[in-house]
Amino acid sequence: MAGAHDAAVLAVARRGDPVSRSALAQELQVTPQAISKILARLMERGLVEEAGTVTSGPGKPTTLYEIVPGSRRAIGLHLTRSRLHSVVVDLTGEILERRELEIGRLQPVPELVATLADEARALQDVGPGILLGVGVGMPGPVDGEEGVYRGTSDPDPWRGAPIRRLLAEELGMPVLLDHDSRAALVGEAWSQPGLLRNAALLLVEDGLGAALCLDDQIVRGAHSHAGEIGHTVVRMDGIPCPCGRRGCAQTEHRAALERGEDELAARILAEVVVNLVRLVDVDRVVLGGRTVHEQHEASMDAIREALTAGLSDESWVHVEVMLSTRGMDLIAVGAACEVLEHEYGLPQVLVGPE
Length: 354
Description:
- By secondary structure, this protein is an alpha/beta fold.
- The protein folds into three domains: 4-67, Arc Repressor Mutant, subunit A (Orthogonal Bundle), CATH 1.10.10.10; 71-184 and 330-344, Nucleotidyltransferase, domain 5 (2-Layer Sandwich), CATH 3.30.420; 197-324, ATPase, nucleotide binding domain (Nucleotidyltransferase, domain 5).
- It has eleven helices and 15 strands.
- The chain has helices spanning 4-13, 21-28, 32-44, 109-123, 163-171, 180-191, 249-258, 262-280, 290-294, 296-310, 330-344; strands spanning 19-20, 48-54, 62-67, 72-79, 83-90, 95-102, 130-138, 142-143, 148-149, 175-179, 199-204, 208-214, 217-219, 284-288, 320-323.
- The strands form four sheets. Strands 6-5-4-7-10 form a five-stranded mixed beta sheet, with helices on both faces. Strands 13-12-11-14-15 form a five-stranded mixed beta sheet, with helices on both faces. Strands 1-3-2 form a three-stranded antiparallel beta sheet.
- A hairpin with a 3-residue loop joins strand 4 (72-79) and strand 5.
């Protein structure tokens, strides 16, 4: 795992433009001598390279440095109950190759692990650089610390399965498992260093979930359930939800879409976002997921209108609503970026085979 200063230099370099030693020292508030040592380490490991020089007056030209995208790779697997979307990305999070596979609904765990392993192996030789590992993003509840899918309904053959450990043993390489919405947020943050310091990502797939980044930290919560916004109640006498309650946001949203009431569905999302912003005080909300991309214009308009109305008494509060930059690759890329993040960013849980 990279040290804090090494990770900070790589984060600046990931923004894209070549950068000088003095610019790095100024931004990170460390001495030029310290930056020189950090750059030497990163260059020795092949992560950073010289990118030419610039002259801005008399004296010696200034050397510029840039990240080496092809120095490292990671595989990301987005697992749902019926399909598997797989990618391999470089160090910047750019996709080198993607795959899509329809799978049998609720495969038994041994068959599921074999399917995941086969897809990972199909991508492991794509592209240059060192392969760091495999990330898996799937609908929750997922215990990222333990690498276990917890499940909430019976019968569910995946419930309690130690998917991370089983897949790591099958592949012989490090594996990470996380909730799909958290993986998605990590992917967005990795691709846009420094932009999502206090942000929420609202993921609309088969269900409705959220992930939070507060003060540059991905929030997990005591039971890895932070962001389960889909099971907040938006209608007290609403539709029964599988969780046992009535009127949960994801149940009401899905029902509105099934009835063709797209405007109502957008308003439900909007109220969820306003409640989330009020609760955790973020300044950016990212919308992602298959369903929201199909309805993104109506959803974003409704959310912006609801935020304007809901925050009208606090004119100094500004919240930007954004559409994910990753489209349908969002969760698979995010799962891969969690592996990169573990090595070269904020610590996450990554284990190899026991």
